[in-house]
Amino acid sequence: MPILECRDVSKHFGGLAALTDVNLTVEQGEVLGLIGPNGAGKTTLFNAISAAFPPKSGSIRFKGQSIVGLKPHQICRVGLARTFQSVKIFGGMSVLQNVMLGCYFGKKSKVPCDVAEQDSCELLEFVGLKSFIDTAAESLTLGNQKRLEVARALATKPDLLLLDEVMEGLNHTEVAQAMELVSRIQGRGVTVVMIEHVMKAIMKVCERIVVLHFGQKIAEGTPDEITSNENVIKVYLGA
Amino acid sequence: MVWLLVMLALALSPLYASRYTIILLSTILMNVVLSVSWAMFSGPTKYISLAPAAFFGVGIYSAAVLGTKLPMPAVIVIGGLASFCLAILVGALTLRLRGIYFVMFTFGLVELLMHFLLWFELNINDTTGRVVPSLDNSTVFYLMLLIFAVLMLTVYFIKDSKFGMALQSIGENEEAASHIGINVTALKIVTFGVSAFFMGLAGAIMATRWTYIDPKIAFNPVISFMPVLMAIFGGMGRPYGPIIGAAIFSYLGEFLITKFPYYYMLIFGIILVVAILYMPGGLVGLAQNIRNQYLRRRHAHS
User: Which pTM was predicted?
Assistant: First the structure.
């Protein structure tokens, strides 16, 4: 059974069709890439899945259960976490507090204070922010803020993680680190769907890629299949 | 430790202080309770509420309606609970509004309640005002002190709990907070209710001191602005900021009105403008700046 199954998901903003009958299946344990030109509807699809903007029609099933109609915090609690394209950290709070909030509220069960702190420290080490524990989140560099978002999302103990352009705006070293981080997240048993513009990275990290264009799925397959797909080449090169 | 000493000094004050001092202290405590309970919700979440007068007024009217029928402690608790219920109801309807819309709605609530009561009293009850059974000064003072103590315990409990952190995260980024599993709606509504509960308690007690009330006294819009000004004046960065702000603010008001009865509002206004222009962090922020500068200078010397 796939971990996430979107059937005919549509979303309109006024007269603009942001998503039209998108079908997406994510298998347990894989890293799926979601690509497409600007305005293709990638983030809108994430917003529809995570209930930031519920879809107009279509069904979304997570671990076999329909999650349409749930509130964002309920979606998080069933095990579906996300990060944001434009970082949304709690700037005035410490790095540790950011992650601890994920530990405390990510699941319905009660988490004692010391366990939350220990788990948070472990996660901050995992993403490489161990030395910034007491720093105010807003004073981190963009790259580190993105890692903090990943740590905070992982703190909610998700089974599926939606990563929205974690590599955008990062330099070469940081992109390499982020790629390695994605693989290690997969190693923890978390399924990953990632939106990315850095092609080199997505081709390397993802086993399967889905291409969106004007709110519709135009291709799906392994990185090799995608790079040789005529539709994709047309969209990206305009030929 | 400092807390215990202050509480003890206050608790024993009716034994040695003059009647005037006790009445003044009750007023100061009332302002402290209002601004601390305002800052409890509006401080971390950054939802600026102008509804304190509404919750305070509901407390006052509870005392006016039930004062002769029930024992006073019960009346006060009912006053608080009535405000709590109103806040939950209003919160459920309006806490989805953000920024200026929330501010305007909360202020509108004060006017709405006042005009509804004016109409209701005139047309249904054929009166304008009501008489509230009075309590003696030191009872009012002790009740206020008790509420202040309970309020401070609540504030400290929330501040150090995960809920305090969650409230702050709502102010930082509400969308992100909801996506990491925080039920932002429920948390906002309940905290709004708890803050209103304390305002209602304060209203019910103060009503006994005023003995005669009518809707315009009970729902005085100034009560909505005062807690905001006092909290900003004291500084919202620390939990004791609103306390210090409210205490100095109310004492200053009392001092000016007795010493300069004609220029009172003028001087008060100037002090406020200067405070807001030159102390963005309030008194607490100012104290911290001075301390930091002192430490830096000492550091430079050594």
Answer: 0.91
